[in-house]
């Protein structure tokens, strides 16, 4: 179990995170927050690239800093921008990573074949990465992160730059990987984690806003999300008064999904809240919520 106990992080006089408490057990967690909310700061502390200014992080009750190398051996990490060698093939690159990680030589080749199979790159394992698509490179990144079969797998914005098909493939792959380990995926793209995360972790105002399952946080907006239709003329003033979540044009009218704390009106239909609604509502400024 990974425990974040009351950590804070300041950069000079700027507070990036404060009084943050979270516990992770095996499963997939989606770390969901807008850009700049502190996701990378949290991840950098979890992978020991930076130290918290206050508080501590424990793995099975032991300080990760005291554990040092023993802790780092448990981690697989895909940073937001990962460095690879264009003129290497995936296999050669993974051999290099295995050497860096100090993995035992016996079994490495078999393990490399296994992970390349898992990320569906077996047929190009000896091709230079120079001509690979963004999605293929990202899969090489995931392969290096899981190579040593880590207990804790941390992926920082792993779907940035992927097209929808590659995103779908990534989601399937991750469900297969998630057994018996902690998987933490940072993203600001709701659909990437909606279908695969067991729990989501949201950061707001430099601290933990929510940790729990998706159904529960969606439930918290029950009775506040509506859809209604209106003419184009009515729409600008409606938009000033309500937090709109989705706007569509259909047959010369606007169909608007929105959030409100007001009692329902006759021409509003209540709809089931989704994670996208939660994201938009929780990160909207208070003045917009109507
Ligand atoms: N080394 C640093 N020095 C000063 N401020 C920093 C530093 N690193 C991050 N910050 C600030 O801390 C805040 C949180 O940054 P962080 O990168 O953790 O956010 P994020 O949620 O990961 O966003 P993104 O997805 O854009 O990386 C931001 O306002 C950022 O400008």
Automatic annotation (TrEMBL):
InterPro entries: AAA+_ATPase, ABC_transporter-like_ATP-bd, ABC_transporter-like_CS, P-loop_NTPase. The keyword ATP-binding applies. The keyword Metal-binding does not apply. Residues 2-230 form the ABC transporter domain. One of its GO terms (molecular function) is ATP binding. Keywords: ATP-binding, Nucleotide-binding, Transport. Belongs to the ABC transporter superfamily. This is ABC transporter ATP-binding protein. It comes from Jeotgalibacillus terrae.
């Amino acid at each position: 179990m990974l425990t974040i106990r009351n950590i804070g992080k300041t950069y000079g006089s700027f507070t990036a995170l404060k009084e943050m408490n979270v516990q992770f057990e095996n499963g997939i967690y989606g770390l969901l927050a807008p850009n700049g909310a502190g996701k990378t700061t949290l991840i950098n502390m979890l992978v020991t690239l930076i130290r918290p200014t206050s508080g501590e992080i424990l793995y099975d009750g032991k300080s990760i800093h005291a554990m040092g190398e023993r802790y780092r051996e448990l981690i697989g990490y895909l940073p937001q921008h990962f460095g690879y060698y264009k003129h290497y093939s995936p296999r050669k690159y993974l051999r290099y990573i295995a050497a860096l990680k100090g993995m035992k030589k016996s079994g490495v080749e078999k393990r490399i074949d296994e992970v390349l199979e898992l990320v569906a790159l077996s047929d190009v394992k000896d091709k230079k990465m120079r001509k690979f698509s963004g999605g293929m490179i990202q899969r090489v990144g995931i392969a290096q992160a899981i190579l040593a079969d880590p207990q804790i797998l941390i992926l920082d914005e792993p779907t940035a730059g992927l097209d929808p098909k590659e995103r779908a493939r990534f989601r399937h792959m991750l469900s297969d990987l998630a057994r018996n380990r902690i998987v933490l995926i940072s993203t600001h793209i709701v659909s990437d984690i909606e279908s695969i995360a067991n729990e989501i972790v949201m950061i707001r105002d430099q601290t933990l806003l929510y940790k729990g399952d998706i159904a529960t946080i969606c439930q918290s907006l029950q009775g506040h999300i509506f859809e209604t239709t209106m003419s184009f003329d009515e729409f600008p003033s409606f938009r000033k008064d309500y937090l709109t979540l989705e706007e569509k044009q259909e047959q010369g009218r606007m169909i608007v999904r929105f959030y409100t704390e007001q009692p329902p009106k006759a021409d509003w239909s209540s709809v089931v809240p989704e994670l996208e609604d939660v994201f938009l509502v929780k990160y909207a400024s208070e003045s917009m919520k109507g």
